[in-house]
Amino acid sequence: MKTLLISIALATSITNAVAQGCSDAGFCTMGAMKQEIDPDSHTTKHKITLSWANGLGDDGVFVSTPGLSYELHANRNYTIQAKVTGNYASGNLGNAVSAGDIYANVTKSIKALNDWRISITVGFKAPLSNGGMSYNGHPLPMQYQSSLGTYDAIGGVTLTRKKWLFSAGYQQPLSGKNENGFLYAAWPGTDSNAYPQTNKFRRRADVLLKAGHAFTAGKKCTLTPGLLAVYHLGEDSFFDPASMRESSLTGSDGLTLNATLNAQYRAKKCTVGLVLGRPLVVRDIRPDGLTRSIVVAPEFSYNF
Question: What's the rounded Cα separation, in Å, for the pair 262 and 29?
Answer without folding.
Answer: 11
